[in-house]
Amino acid sequence: MFLSRFEFNAVRRGARELLASPQRLHAAVLAAFPADQSRANDQGRVLWRLDQQPHQTLLYLVSPHPPDLTHLVEAAGRPATQSWESRDYAPMLERLTTGQHWAFRLTANPVTTRRKDGTATRSQRFGHVTVAQQTEWLLSRAGKHGFGVVEGRSKEPDVAVRGRRTLRFDRRGRTVTLATALFEGTLEVTDPSLLRQALTHGIGPAKSYGCGLLTLARAS
């Protein structure tokens, strides 16, 4: 597995067009791989996430094969001065052990599955829209992904929703709506194998559209 990072040059038209469309950005990410390398396998799958700060927009990418992001550099980056970074993810994955604490970041699509009303015959996905609902969605799923959220100084779970967005775009003639949440906090490893699975296969739905990529950093 590989972890890659690319910085957009947000003043360029190509960057603005990609950042405005999850559908276009999804296609641009897949274009970084030959067709036979973009599919999920036992190692993992292609996952990506946008981290947008006031003066910097980064694309993080986890993939079974190293990406070729030349097309992004030329259309939406800084081709004269900057490329992209890729590194082997295996040493990080192998370093995980039970009891470790890590700072984490995750953009996810928190949803619930239910019938729309009493007359509906099929269940549908509905996005959680409040901070409380979205936080509970993450906390209720942490264990099966090999981690727990540690308690903060207030004895509450050390997790915060730092950003919430509603994405709308057309796909095959219909409008897709995704409610996303950016989670940040501190986790404790409870099952390294399950956590490796989460890091390489993602968490929750809408992985093709920038959701599901969990990343770790040293806890302060």
From TrEMBL:
Pfam families: CRISPR_assoc. This is CRISPR-associated Cse3 family protein. It comes from Amycolatopsis cihanbeyliensis.
